[in-house]
Structures are given as structure tokens and as C-alpha cells.
Amino acid sequence: MVAIRDERIVSIEEAVSVVKDGDVVGLSGSVLFNQPAALARAVIRKGVKDLTLVMLTGGLVSDMLVGAGCVKKIVTTYMAMQDYAPICPNFQRKYMSGEVKFWECDFQHFHCTIKGAQWGMPYLLTKAGVGTDICKINPDLEEIEYKGEKWVKVPPTPLDVSLIYANKVDPYGNCVYEGSVFAEFILANATKRAIIVQAEEIVPNEYIRRDPRVAILGGPTRADYVVDVPYGAHPDEGPKYYAHDAQFCKEYVKAAKSDETFKVWLDKYVYGPKTQAEYLEAVGGITKLLTLRQSMI
Amino acid sequence: MAKVYEGEYTISELQSILISRQIKFEDNIIGPGFYNDVVYNGALLAMKNHAPNTLYLSGIGWSSLAQAEIPRHTPMYIPFEYRFMAICEKIIRGHDEIQLSAGGPRRHCDVFFLGAMQVDKYGNQNISIRGTIDKPTFRGPGIIGLQTFSTFMDRYYIYTRNHDTRTFVDEVDFISAAGYKNRNGDRESWGFAKHGWNPNGPKEIISPIACMDFDEKTKHMRLKSVHPGHTVQEVKEKTGFDILVPDKVPMTDPPNEEEIITLREQIDKTKCLKRLHGLQE
User: Fold this and answer.
1) Which of B78, B80, B143 is closest, CB to CB, to A77?
2) Which of B80, B81, B146, B270 is best to mutate for the A interface (most A CBs within 10 A)?
3) Topology of B11-275 in CATH?
4) Which neighbouring-strand residues pair with B165?
């Protein structure tokens, strides 16, 4: 008898069922690239509350989760959408009203807090932030003296779940990236309960073995749940596959100006379309998708 | 000496050129800012125009323009674009990038250009909040890597889109990146030089109307040159503190023909420097 290896492919609803109220959730990508947009919409539909979002740099997708009321705290270095919005609109509004907390940090602190979690360290030290006001805005960051010198002490941020976009994934969770890679690898390493990966396409394991150098997440950081979502990063860029959707971003920024207008937007693009096919129809269908694909050339 | 360009140019084009002039032949590596059309174009112009040995780090990898040409349709202000790979010779992973210039024995990046919401007389920079920490009146986008860059690199510059009393303030509301000195001490007390890290605040500030540097002794901001078409008086009025003004303030060297032609024909192919900011008044 030959034992059969279990595949990890699940539906998007099954995948996000592991995300619970109050979880600390890592998001892949940055600004308008590689964000797990489809998983985020499923999380919103599930109605999860009080999440802490952790990402290298935030963008439209993290702002959408904020606008939908899923988030209580954000751990990141930056929240903006290129020239569409110098500051993410929902985030800005909800930060000012006190609804969402912001653990603002520098790349160094982000790296220390995630690496600290990965290594199980109580804290890591960095020089970045010494002489600034960073410790005043984040009570759990501390300026300490070590051997007569000032350092910033960064506590770890372990993740419960990470939601990750990949270009390709095999049924066992090995992930391939064709373009930009952000903090996916360190986020996956700091994740305890589940690494959930959505990809443009599911490729056979042979694809990876033909050249194993292409796998970026794999081994202990292979996906626990694999979801097949073509055009799943839309409105972000899916590197090599399609460009970001400028028209959609402009519409988003306009809608995100107030809670009322954003509720209408959510009904149109998140609560209304239940499947990826319905969503892609809602954003402009095949004509839009081909345009975005051709913009990659 | 190249001939001064006599046609029209935009403020963004001029600022790009001023940025490119700060990049020297022997600067191996540049870490450019996040979404910043002017800085990106300036950095790339330097590589093509006078500093072919420099490497340029975008969000996707290390690039050289010595052999490569910029793809025709790529907007040069979007650092992570897949199309950017056309000029890359080494792809980076995000988790490597955030360690860049992190203070190890090998410095990853030499030069960086920060943007700013507020900048003060000692070169402190704010991109986080206006108002106080307890009662902010405005939320900025966040620090990104500005503390990393202002701590571990050889030198850095500040580039601003506006020159007004709202941007150039006596003291920043919040210190996102520390300059020469501030309410938390000075560079010496923070112990940067000891490790071989940057002992200085911003080397220069490039605004749409002037260039500023800092007095060697007092570390106070000082007017260095005024862009063509602007006056010392104007700079004084638009600065929210008493800026040091030397007896003689030269005019900023205007673009020369080589710079403008290289910038327009080989770097800014999508004309974003023209489109985004309009012609100079």
C-alpha cells in the first residue's frame, strides 16, 4: 500500500473560518501590491471583530477591513495608497475618532517585532527610533540603556493567522512569487494557528520540483490552507498577471470618505458578490480584466 | 561645462535634477523613497547622467541603468511594479529589504531622500501626526523606514513639495525622524557615530523655492541657494522660524541642457514630472 499525501485546497469560506474575533492577523503585500483582497472580503462577510492587523505597509485592503469595522488595532509602518490617497481614508477617519489604535513603527521595529515572535524572544534592541518620539506614541516600546547607551526595546508580536497572497501555489502549500515579495516569509514564520494562502493558480507539485528554487514559502512555512482565487489581488497588482485597477482605486477613495458612502461601497463589492466570479463581474467583467492584464506589458 | 538650459521646466524637474546632483559617482547604492516621483526620477537621472556605478534599490530589487533602459510605459514613481524588473539585476525579498542599511558591518545604502509633512530648524522631520499625541488634529501616513534611513545611512536629504510656514516650523509636533538635535538630546548623546552610523541630521533640504543646509556649529537651518525666479525675502516669509541667511545667497544652478535632455528622453518617459506639477510659474 502507498499512503496518499493530503492536499490542502479548501474553499475560501472554509479557509477564513479559522479567523476568530480578537485575532492578530498578518497580511501579505503592501500599498497596492500582493494584498490578500479576496480573503479580506471573505473575512468581512464572516463578520469578524476586533482584529489586530499586522503588515509591512498597509494599503487599500487593510483600509477596507478597517472601514468594515473588523479592526481594533493596526501594527504597521505606513498606511497609504500611492497617488490615490496620501493616507488611507477609512484608517485616517477611524484613527481620529479613536475607534482604531495604531502601533506606528519603523521598518526596523517591524522587523524586530516579527523576528522576535519567530524566535520566541522577549524583546529585540535597535538603534532606530533613538532621539525620536516613537516611544511616546507606543507605550510598549521603550527606550532603555544598555552598557551606557540608548536603545529602543521592541516587544514581539506573535500572529494567530496570516492571510497571504501568492502568484502560484501547489496543493500542498508551496508558494511561488513572480514579482515583488514583501514580508510574507517572516510573517508566515511568526504565525501560530494557520497560514492561509490565496493564489492566482494552483500548480501541480511537479511545477515546484522542476525547479525548487522558485518556492518562497514552503517547508514549515507552507500554507495550511490553499485557496484558488484568480484575479484575487484585484484591485491590487498581481505581479506578472495584471496591473492595479486605477479606476477602482479612485472610486474606493471617494467612497471611503464617510461611513455612509463606504457602507454602500461594501454592499456593492463585498456583501453583494458572494463568489469571485460575481465580484469580477461587479468590477467590470472580462473587459476590465483583459485591460488590466494587458497593462502588464 | 554644459550649457544652461534656456527653455521652460517644471519645479518637479528642477527638484529632480537637484536631487540627482547630490548623488556622486562613488555612491554605490541609493535607497530611494516610497512613492515619490521626484526622488525616483532624480536618482535614476544621476545613474544615467553622471554616476553609472550607483545601484538603485526599488521595492522589487537592485537596479543599474549602466546597461539597461527604462521600459517605455513604466511610471517611475511606482517602486514595486512588476515591469520594474526589466532594469533589475538582483531581486530582493521584503524581509531582506527591511533589514537594509540596518547597521551591520556592510552598509547597504548610502543616500536617502525623505519626504516631510513638517521639518524644523534643526532638521527634525514629522510625517506622523499634527497636534499632540493625546489630541492629534491630523493623522499622517506613518514613519515607514525613515528612522532606519536617518540612523544607519551615510547621509540623507529632505525633499518637500511645499515651502510654507505649515511645513517649515520652529519645532515639529512629533519627531518621526531625528535631525541634529531636539528635545530628546542630540546625535552625540544618542551614540550613532560610535557604531559608524550617521553622526549628522539631514545634509540638505530641497524645497520648491530654495535649498537649505545647516550651520556647522549651531546646527541651525541656513539658506544655501534660491531657485531661479524666487527671492531671499520670499524664503524668509515662507519659513516659520528665523532661517540663517548668509550675506551672499547664490541662485541655485539652473538645469543644464544635458540634464534636462537626459531626464526627459531617458528617465521620465511617462512625463509624470510635467503632468503632476505643471509648468513653473
Assistant:
1) B143
2) B80
3) Glutaconate Coenzyme A-transferase (3.40.1080)
4) none
